[in-house]
Amino acid sequence: MTRTSQSVTPDGVGQDSEGPATVLLRGPSEETWGPIWDQRDPRTMNVLAITTRLDPLEWIDACETQLGELPVKTGAIRIGTRIDPAVPSERRSHEGVDLPLTAVERPSDLDELYTAINLYITEWLHTDQQTVIWLESLTPVIEHVGAKRTISFVESLAERLRMTGAIAYVRVDPRDHDDHTLSLVGDAFDRVVEVESSGPSVATDTREESVLRTLRTAEGPVSVETIAGRVAASENARHPEGREPANARLVEIDLYHACLPKLADRGIVSVEWDRRLVKLALEPARVDALLERRDGSER
């Protein structure tokens, strides 16, 4: 039975060992973390991040910022990444922390995704920490396989989580799906939590921040192509050697179809879609406040 809470920090979510195995976080995609970490000690957790857009190294940065220190063990599964079949996984280094990384190339391959998740759960069974799974977005799965198969996947995963005492937090942005789909998928979870936005904000993922910084210094509308070039250059400069460079053309596609529509929906930017031109829809002082709020959350 699904229970719904309107609280941003619902009591007991993830605290009670007899509590839910699966929690659906319904809210704007810019509310990256939701209530997951509010009452948790990183020393009691092993955390597996399943990312769709956020780079695993960026996730590690955000996780450490939010918790103050990293969990005992961390791992990542990247959905939608092309990999060499002969090398199914790798380890990424982050300031002395080994990050086991597995890639699931096709969001529609739920068997592969389930197997990847189960490998981490099984590997961590011998530890004293609870395994906490965070899925950045359920949207790619729903879009590729539909609600029915998504529900079957969630239910199968929940059985494994209950057997091992693990818990999964899964995020979905209601703006990306119709009410019928949201209702069907929500019923498959032990608990549904409504994560309300407190107003305009910049997501933990740095792509939105780069867009706003580019527009903030511009004197007028800027083309999507120009913004993409600057975002790609910023991401390449920030990440360590060995990471596949950001491709400006792919960044442009992501901006046009994902990032910019969400910023426009929140009233932060204005887009001339036919001309592919973007400008700020807020006063510069409000944009500065958003960026300062994000900078403050990272310290």
TrEMBL record:
The DUF7344 domain covers which part of the protein? 206-278
Pfam families xref list: DUF7344 (PF24035), DUF7504 (PF24336)
Give the span(s) annotated as Disordered.
1-38
Protein name according to UniProt = DUF7344 domain-containing protein
State the species of origin. Answer: Halalkalicoccus tibetensis
